[in-house]
Amino acid sequence: RVAALGLPTALVGQAGPLLPAADQAALQVVDAQYGGILSRSASVLVVCRQWTRRAGTVKPGGTTVDVRLSRSGSRWTVDALHPAHPGPAARTAAPDIRSVLSDDRIVLPPAAVADLRSGRVHTSVAKAMLALARTYRLEVSVVRSGHPLDVFGTSRPSDHPRGRAFDVWRIDGHAVVDPATPRSLIERFMRDAAAAGSYNVGGPVLLSGGSAGQFFSDATHHDHVHIGFRT
């Protein structure tokens, strides 16, 4: 199937958890957002839920894949797949992490759940999620794993792999990328994220105020809100 699309068949070997040892599998793409976009290269973070059937038993799962693309002329092609590697769950979780995992106003995809359970996400992230969930229903796309290690196109480490950031793709049922989503909702959410302790809030709207460099906007962040922390 990959060859029929004119793509490198080596991609099959990079699919990792998307090709489990199962009799059947069904995949749902929850969201696809930019991890970075330049004129000739891009990272697209594809958030997936997956159900597998083996010996009559259905098991839910899923992952987030950092899909790398390059552009030749007017055509984009997939070059590589980098599935998330959240790591094993910690023996115990901090109280704020447990609260996030049980809060039905915080919707988390499988890789983000595993990130939180791994013990490698700072409590600043969990505290901010809980604070925002008191006002909004937030749907998270990426926390730690499945995100580029560096800010795309630079050598500057991203806060995501260090467990100090999360992205939100839908707020109160409204996708950030949807032109019909009220700009006032996104602006209010971004300001509330800053009030919850984020030093680095990015989205489709460039806000005024805040501390120096606290708010930013670029092509990569027109489809989600990035919320980062120093610790």
Could you explain how this protein is built, in words?
The chain has helices at 95-102, 110-117, 123-133, 183-195; strands spanning 24-37, 41-54, 57-61, 64-72, 75-83, 106-107, 138-142, 165-171, 174-175, 200-202, 215-216, 225-228. By secondary structure, the protein is of the alpha+beta class. It folds into 2 domains: 3-83, Nuclear Transport Factor 2, Chain: A; 95-228, Muramoyl-pentapeptide Carboxypeptidase, domain 2, CATH 3.30.1380. The strands form 2 sheets. Strands 6, 7, 8, 9, 10, 11 and 12 form a 7-stranded mixed beta sheet that branches. Strand 8 and strand 9 (174-175) form a beta hairpin. Helix 1 (95-102) packs across helix 3 (123-133).
How would you summarize the topology of this molecule?
Layout: E1 24-37, E2 41-54, E3 57-61, E4 64-72, E5 75-83, H1 95-102, E6 106-107, H2 110-117, H3 123-133, E7 138-142, E8 165-171, E9 174-175, H4 183-195, E10 200-202, E11 215-216, E12 225-228
Parallel strand pairs: 6-7, 10-11
Antiparallel strand pairs: 1-2, 2-3, 2-4, 4-5, 7-8, 8-9, 8-12, 10-12
Keywords for this entry:
Muramoyl-pentapeptide Carboxypeptidase, domain 2; 17% helix; 4 helices; 2 domains; seven-stranded mixed beta sheet; alpha+beta; 231 residues; Nuclear Transport Factor 2, Chain: A
